[in-house]
Amino acid sequence: MRRLLIIALAIILPSCAVAQRKGFKLVESNPSSKPAWVTANERMDYIYVKGQEAATLADAKGLAMKGVVDEISQSVAVKVEGEIIDNSVMTINGNTSEFHEQYINNTKTKLAKMPALQGITIQKADVYYERYYNKKSGEEYYVVNLRYPFSEFERRDLIDAYNAQEKAINDKIAQLKDEVETVSSIEDINKNVAELSGLSKELGNEDARVHTINTVIGLYNEVCKSMMVEVVENRPSHMAVRIVYKDRLITTSQKPVVKSDCAMSFDVKYVNGICNVNFDSSYCYPQDEPVIKITFKAGNSKISKDIRIMFK
């Protein structure tokens, strides 16, 4: 029924939209004889876009091709929505129809970015255009009618490609969530959070999965906040530390910030995930209870520890 309505509108609306402007005369058409499909949709395995009007032929063709992408995206989005959503209706603000509309719009946006639709070219289309000219003003405009081959088989391929793309995103979100409990380096945490943020931007706020993504990002942030600097070794002019989360060693390649009121000449090296700090404590005195503060950065959190300098 929806398809029949689209076809009916495609036939009726162009006749209104391309009514000849006053003072303009048809001076050119290509092909010279108007094809039958311009006034009637002959076959169902085509997308028809009619009556696209612009000041130049290139602009009118561009509008027509945009109409092709929009129509394909709409038809595929409706079918995808029927396959995926009908068995698990979700609501936004208690309005199911509003959710469906947002879902379809979001699906259309993602479909339009897919390589299959990016590859749509006017060279595959049948095009009929007319040029109208106003002798008095010297103005002209073009009207383009276009039909683009798009079979049910191609529609099915596009739906399958879209569903595969969505499944890949779901699998990636699940993988990154699982890695919260196994990730063993600050760099991997930062990489995973960046990947989740990228997915969130790609999906858009209308996608229900964004809430899940934000929850997973929150889990990584909690890991960062709960990390601790643990002292492994502390002796004169040398100390070694590591980062731990619960019982898990967290490695990093970053150089920590090392500060002291008296120690100087810090030399930081990593050995098997352990951060070794050598320093000069010549100007430090035991009675002052001097310390070295070591600070790492994990996500938006800073992990610090004050470690007393040993003299014997």
Lay out the secondary structure.
Elements: H1 2-17, E1 25-30, E2 46-54, H2 57-84, H3 96-112, H4 115-118, E3 126-133, E4 140-149, H5 152-178, H6 186-203, H7 209-226, E5 228-235, E6 238-245, E7 248-250, E8 257-260, E9 264-271, E10 274-280, E11 291-298, E12 301-308
Antiparallel strand pairs: 1-3, 2-4, 3-4, 5-6, 6-7, 6-10, 8-11, 9-10, 11-12
Helix pairs in contact: 2-3, 2-5, 5-7, 6-7
In brief:
With 312 residues, the chain is an alpha+beta fold. It is built from seven helices and twelve strands. The protein has helices spanning 2-17, 57-84, 96-112, 115-118, 152-178, 186-203, 209-226; strands spanning 25-30, 46-54, 126-133, 140-149, 228-235, 238-245, 248-250, 257-260, 264-271, 274-280, 291-298, 301-308.
| Largest sheet properties | 5 strands, antiparallel
The total count of helices amounts to 7
Helix content: 40-55%
Number of domains: 3
| Total DSSP E strands | 12
Derived structural class: alpha+beta
Q: Report mean pLDDT, rounded to a whole number.
A: 87
Q: What is the ordering of alpha helices and beta strands?
A: HEEHHHEEHHHEEEEEEEE
Overall shape: it is elongated
Report the end-to-end length measured between terminal Cα atoms: 88 Å
Radius of gyration: 32 Å
Give the low-confidence spans.
Answer: 1-17, 86-92
Strand content: 25-35%
Overview of the structural elements:
- This protein has 312 residues and is of the alpha+beta class.
- The protein has 3 domains: 2-150, no CATH class; 157-225; 227-308, Sandwich (Immunoglobulin-like).
- It contains 7 helices and 12 strands.
- The chain has helices at residues 2-17, 57-84, 96-112, 115-118, 152-178, 186-203, 209-226, and strands spanning 25-30, 46-54, 126-133, 140-149, 228-235, 238-245, 248-250, 257-260, 264-271, 274-280, 291-298, 301-308.
- The strands form 3 sheets. Strands 5, 6, 7, 9 and 10 form a 5-stranded antiparallel sheet that branches.
- The N and C termini lie far apart (88 Å).
